[in-house]
Amino acid sequence: MIKYFITFCFIINSFIIFSQNLYSDKTIKEIRNYYNQITSELIKVNPEVFTFSETIGYIDKNGDTTLYEGEGDSGDQKISIYKINNRIVRIVDFYSGSSGSYHEGKTEYTIKNDTLIFVFVSQGEHSYDMNLGNPTKLKEERIYYNKGKPYVHVKREFDGLAANRKSFYKQKSEIASKKHDNFYIELLQEILTNYKSNNMSYYDNKYER
Hints:
Blueprint: H1 2-21, H2 26-41, E1 48-54, E2 57-59, E3 65-67, E4 74-84, E5 87-98, E6 102-112, E7 115-126, E8 135-146, E9 149-161, H3 166-170, E10 174-175, H4 182-198
Antiparallel strand pairs: 1-4, 2-3, 4-5, 5-6, 6-7, 7-8, 8-9, 9-10
């Protein structure tokens, strides 16, 4: 039992030390510097923006589209593609919607030499219940990639009342698992493929009869 406890303490201590040294890591510093450089340059860039509405419906016997009302989820998705010197350097995939509560999220991809190097994910869910003080859930994830492979994944989360959400931004990020981080590489490739070959028509609503 003591052996397992010592091992557990060693792992936790390793995570703390790694977290403290995270931003002194050479690869992380290079990525952060590039991210800041691109961000400052993109202030003057107008992105290509593709907007899609997420609705639930079907095509009726007359060939008309009929939308369901009051059922399921509804919302909007906006994909913004930023270029510098005709090369894609950032893609922002933003969505918002409601299904019992309002939720929104953003996945931001930063690309260098056609390779993904950084993903920033932010998510929020807000319920409107005055008796409960407006419950709120927030999450941020920062995923660093090195040579096309997941390198470091950190996150922070908040689940509480809207009035206390300031504490979320004071939290230090924690090391998270990289197990599913290839998922973002696949999502990015899906967006790029549809942008280059279908002009994003893949994301349009397709209603069934």
